[in-house]
User: What shape does this take?
Amino acid sequence: MTPWFRPSLGPSIHRFFLMTHLRRHLAILLCFGFAFGIFALSAEDARASSPEDQIAEVVEAAELEYDMLEFDAAIGLIEAGLTVARENNVRSPEVADLHFLIGLIRHADGEDDAAIDAFVDALETHQDAELNEFYVTPSVEQLMQTARQRAQPPTDDPSPDVDDASPDIDDPPPAEDVDPLTHDPLRRADAGEPLTIEAQIPADLPVFRVHLHHRRYGESEFEQVEMDPTDATGFAVTLDGTKIRTSQFEYFITAVNRAGELVAESGRATNPHRASVIGDVHATPGDPVDHDTIDPDEPTRERDSGFYGTVLFGTDVGFLPGGTPTANFERDVSPGLAPAFAHTKIDLGWRLNESSHVGMYFRFQPFPQTDFDTLPEGAIDEDAAFFRHENECFGLGLPGDCLLGLQYQHVISSGVPQFYSSVGAGIGRVRNWIKLKERHDEDDSVSPCLGRDIHEDPNIGPYCELRDSVRTGWAHFGVGGGMFIPIIDNLDLVADSYLMILIPDTSLNLDINLGARVTF
Assistant: This one.
């Protein structure tokens, strides 16, 4: 008997689809590694390159992130580059390029007013500043025309009007006159709960007033409130819970002297800090908030690190390159797609910080246990080591197949939802369903085709279709990605994908999962 596997598509198409998907995930990881390497080298060997060279490297990395639509990562790079420019009083075309990128990102987010402000900053930074023609579209050109009308010729010695007590906080002040505030940007806020924001101002700065500028998601204008001094250098303000009602909260902080001149800042109107709002964001504004239940001396719980647990349920599609044996060693299969159906995955680990998570996962794929007694003698080596053993789930007796592995997740955006990439490796097996063509012999009284529909094939003659399975592994490595969608505090909905390469019995398997994550 010579069974045949009947793929639904040609193997070249399957290989192209799966390998393209793999390259995309690897490209994301490589881009983040490239950006991280630039900043690591800059921090460890600041004397090895000039500020201009550092800024040029930042522009290149930020453009790469922008081209890949990784806006949050691009903004992080741009902020670092502008900090270098301010500290070293650099006003080069590359600095203008950073402002142009901010404008492009704001335009993509639908914030055209903020985009125009950023384009004005670029034009006022360097007289020869020009937007890369690769990024010019009719809508962007319209914004650029407005910016050109508003922009003033750049000057090396700007002279602010000291009589104006309300300076334009969007215009970048001279680097030598403005210091950054000491402030840890908030990443999350509880819906409907009072929110305290704090900042530290250097004691040698002539600060007269410190303001918090904030807005809820969907609002175009920032509301300004004054921050109160808490000690010789500290300032703080507590916002009412009615201000924290949408899915995202944006803010920045400014400090001015008695003449109204900006002397320190954290964030800007064109690039504010953003915090995700967790909880009942749809509650009606104006609901009473019980301030007496808030203990002002209670320390803020650390959210950036700690234990997490994830439970996922999903399905799988695999690609078999051919030659992989079934449980019966007499049978081989041809290349093609093979589904793996349902599985459960548990991931337990530790959040090292807001972006880096390391965990261990256990994947269980339920499956009727194989009756090895029906196979030819010698098909199964019952005394083999666990990594070669054909019994289910490492020989533990569970009715199905298991994977055990380690996985690293890197969060690549701080908004809602949070997107992440992942990479991992481990041991175990995956079982894929296949359909076989079994030749039918009418004279065989024990033919497996008895009672089944008989078909005709010009190569093998009469046949019937039988289902069997292939178990690939025992080692695997994979790349993937997904997103966290906050439901309530400490509970996220998770959508996850994970592409695995299994060896030495080879297959490519793509898991698609949905589940929930709890953080502590």
